[in-house]
């Protein structure tokens, strides 16, 4: 069977604990870079957060240079942003954004933009946002995120366990820092759709994490009583079993997001789709990464400190084994005490203590099914 086929069926044994610990160095570097970008460059906040005025001018001839000249004539060119887009009716729009908060000054700029575009003043759509409203939006977003983390911690603690709640919340903070850091580093504009997208991808990241944790609990209940497996081994086994499912879910979720970004934002020039899809794209990738790398590594550290796994590690040492060897070996129930064939698996396939391929694992049951009896014809 090909490697892809074994990955698809969960018949692999990649050394995720070792790989993840190396990737933690990459995460640390990305966190430092993200925090540095946030502190030194700051976020490129839209007018919805800092207050100002947005003009949308329907014109086929108005250029960005002409719009900039209008703003400069009125002393509003500093910090301004100008975008060319199309609306749902395929009408060309020039979107002008400035930090103007005075309504009289805004009305003067509206008139000048209409003259430059050779359209009526009533055709220029003006949206005025006060700085108080922007501060309220920011405060409500932070409050929503804090409440989200609290509810997530309570739910996972009640349905799974508190160690898994901690291991799930830390990756969410990791994803948030990386997403915000990328926005600060590349100076992407932060808009209300961006905030909505970030909260959305936090929920997706949590879903991936819970899937991995649920399989870890199943394997813990199934194998812990044998006294032969550390939690790191069980975690490695769980990741190999759900790896393909995580990849399929992530790729499926990324396809419509990429379609929104390429077709809606780049081809049709819809700014709102660009703001929403960029945040989703970044969040989905970091969410899948943190679920496999960050969450499971933290859980392994916490679970290995439990008394039952401390005893298992000591028992393995007393038998002359190596508790840091996380290769998956299916211990046969008929194996004699003290005998353990630790031969590594070929091409990542699980093996039994006797060295034969563990066909029982293919069927998710203690023993493989009996072959059917041949009937006489």
Automatic annotation (TrEMBL):
Biased composition range(s): Basic residues: 368-377
InterPro entries (alphabetical): SecD/SecF_arch_bac, SecD/SecF_bac, SecD/SecF_CS, SecD_SecF_C, SecD_SecF_C_bact, SecF_bac
GO molecular function terms listed in the Swiss-Prot or TrEMBL record: protein-transporting ATPase activity
Annotated Protein export membrane protein SecD/SecF C-terminal domain residues: 112-304
Transport among keywords: yes
Disordered: annotated span: 323-377
Entry membrane topology: Multi-pass membrane protein
Cell location: Cell membrane
Transmembrane feature ranges: 23-43, 141-158, 165-186, 192-213, 246-270, 276-302
UniProt-listed NCBIfam families: 2A0604s01, transloc_SecF
Homology family: Belongs to the SecD/SecF family. SecF subfamily.
The protein, known as: Protein-export membrane protein SecF
Lineage of the organism: Bacteria, Bacillati, Actinomycetota, Acidimicrobiia, Acidimicrobiales
Gene: secF
């Amino acid at each position: 069977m090909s490697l892809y086929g074994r990955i698809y069926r969960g018949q692999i044994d990649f050394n995720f604990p070792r790989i993840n610990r190396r990737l933690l160095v990459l995460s640390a570097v990305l966190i430092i870079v993200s925090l540095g970008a946030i502190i030194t460059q700051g976020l490129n906040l839209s007018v919805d957060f800092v207050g100002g005025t947005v003009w949308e001018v329907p014109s086929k001839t108005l250029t960005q240079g002409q719009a900039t000249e209008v703003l400069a004539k009125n002393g509003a060119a500093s910090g301004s942003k100008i975008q060319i887009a199309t609306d749902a009716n395929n009408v060309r729009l020039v979107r002008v954004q400035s930090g103007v908060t005075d309504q009289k000054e805004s009305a003067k700029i509206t008139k000048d933009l209409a003259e430059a575009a050779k359209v009526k003043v009533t055709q220029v759509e003006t949206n005025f946002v006060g700085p108080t409203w922007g501060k309220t939006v920011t405060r409500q977003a932070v409050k929503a995120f804090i409440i989200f983390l609290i509810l997530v911690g309570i739910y996972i603690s009640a349905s799974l366990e508190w160690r898994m709640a901690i291991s799930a919340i830390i990756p969410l903070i990791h994803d948030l820092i990386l997403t915000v850091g990328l926005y600060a580093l590349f100076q992407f504009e932060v808009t209300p759709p961006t905030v909505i997208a970030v909260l959305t991808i936090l929920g997706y990241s949590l879903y991936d994490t819970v899937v991995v944790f649920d399989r870890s609990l199943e394997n813990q209940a199934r194998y812990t009583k044998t006294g032969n497996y550390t939690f790191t081994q069980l975690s490695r086994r769980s990741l190999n079993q759900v790896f393909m499912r995580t990849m399929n879910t992530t790729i499926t979720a990324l396809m419509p997001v990429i379609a929104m970004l390429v077709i809606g934002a780049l081809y049709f020039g819809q700014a709102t789709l660009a703001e929403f899809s960029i945040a989703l794209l970044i969040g989905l990738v970091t969410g899948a990464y943190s679920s496999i790398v960050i969450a499971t590594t933290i859980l392994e550290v916490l679970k290995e400190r439990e008394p039952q796994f401390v005893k298992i590690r000591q028992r393995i040492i007393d038998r002359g084994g190596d508790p840091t060897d996380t290769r998956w070996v299916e211990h046969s129930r008929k194996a004699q005490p003290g005998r353990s064939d630790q031969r590594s698996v070929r091409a990542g396939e699980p093996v039994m203590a006797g060295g034969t391929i563990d066909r029982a694992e293919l069927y998710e049951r203690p023993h493989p099914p009996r072959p059917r009896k041949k009937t006489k014809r």
